[in-house]
Amino acid sequence: MHFLSYELAQEIVERTMKILNKNINVMNEEGIIIGSGEKERINQVHDGAVLVLKNGESVEIDEKSAAGLKGAKPGINLPIRFHNDIIGVVGITGEPAQIRNYAELVKMAAELVLEQSFLLESVQWKQRLQSEIVNLLISDEPFDESWLEERAGFQGYDMNIPRTAIVLKLYEELGTMNQKLINDIQFELGKQDLTGVTFNNEIVILKSGNHSEQNAVLKRVAGLSRRKAAVGIGKTSEKISGLKSSFRQAQQLTVLGPRLQPDADYYSYENYWLEVELSMLGLKDTDTLSFYDRLLLQDKKGELAHTLDVFMKDGGDLGKIADNLFIHRNTLRYRLDKITELTGRDPRNVKMMLELYVAKLIKTHQ
Question: Does domain 286-365 have CATH number 1.10.10.2840?
């Protein structure tokens, strides 16, 4: 396995040379220079490194011995070890007597950069695997549940416990700051929680645990994502087959929630189940909503739509509604009559008010 890439080797060189004002070379397991402060030496064979790889120990090269070695200059070359294996060589250019005190420090720095890179790659690989599992669970495409359970089981995930979908709809495209948000969220989650990113750049959390545990995490996640994302939470599913529905509910809430209650930290299916279910009806015959379109078309200033919203919110109490709108009752009656004239639905009639509310929700979704 090739642990040392050209990019990683050059990173070791640049980091080390900021500390030590000497040229640094990094050679791969074949003794070829793949990183250097002297760029013209890259891809040359370094005989000093070949000796290190052959003998498994450091090699010092003075002016005299350098003349007999290909691609070598005076300096000290040390093995780079990773998990007890020698995977490359790091060299410091200079007279050995002058740089001997720094040699082990340079070797330690190179191995530390390598270890950090490996750990980062491991974390990223785990995140990619989680994201793949999450996207399969919420996808409309069929999948083999037993195969998925087995694959997730290798990573320590029990797929037979209840989980709830939480969706964060980001206000901006996924970038450096949002990657930090994902990392911060990961820190808040438990061992059985899964996270992923959809093709629409939504962050999805499949949260395990009971209701109180979910609420505690929700508050922390909402705090981290404030002003960065709308947060929706679906219904808890006992089986993995139900996570798709939980995701759709949470996803719908990230659209509906900010329009219904802009200042809320998050929106849960438990509190908005009626709005979610009605808006997800997905009526194909848009002509059935023409009555609501007439209202929107004539209501240029949005005055009637706002009056209707307040009417629905306050449950038809005319006195309270008039006070909240800072208008006279007669003005309120005039507006309600105008809504009735335009839509053919009188909001003072319970059935017709429900029709207006459903139409509004579906229009909000479209």
Answer: yes
